[in-house]
Design a protein that fits this description.
The chain is of the alpha/beta class. It is 40% helix and 25% strand. It has one domain: Transcription Regulator spoIIAA (2-Layer Sandwich). It contains 4 helices and 5 strands. The protein has a 5-stranded mixed beta sheet with strand order 1-2-3-4-5.
Length: 118
């Protein structure tokens, strides 16, 4: 799992690349998110555009991200999920809980940030 961290306005965007599955990928994701929460980041978009597959551990990590940010007064949004990932989220009804956006621009806009080059 490769994670690129960037910002647009006051929003931090995590570009995930690879499969979000049990083991190092989930650990890397959790560690990165925890770092951001501890640093005081309140608005985070998790870009799933380059995630081809997610297992139950990956879904659990997404739930953890959502919960961790909500409990610290922040908000977590997800963008660009591929059909296979969306299907996994629908099967677990997580698509009803997560703030999902088809495109990063929509997620940025929901935070009130202009989507330049998104």
């Amino acid at each position: 799992m490769d994670i690129n961290v960037r910002t647009q306005g006051d929003v931090t965007i995590l570009d995930l690349e690879g499969n979000l599955v049990l083991g190092p990928p989930v650990s890397t994701f959790r560690d990165q998110l925890q770092e951001l929460v501890e640093a005081g980041q309140k608005k985070i978009i998790i870009n799933l555009k380059s995630v081809g597959f997610i297992d139950s551990s990956g879904i659990g990590a997404m739930v953890g991200a959502h919960t961790s940010l909500e409990s610290s007064g922040g908000h977590c949004k997800f963008s660009g999920a591929q059909p296979r990932v969306v299907q996994a989220l629908k099967m677990t009804h997580m698509d009803e809980i997560f703030d999902m956006h088809d495109k990063e621009a929509g997620a940025l806009s929901s935070f009130g940030v202009s989507a330049q080059n998104a």
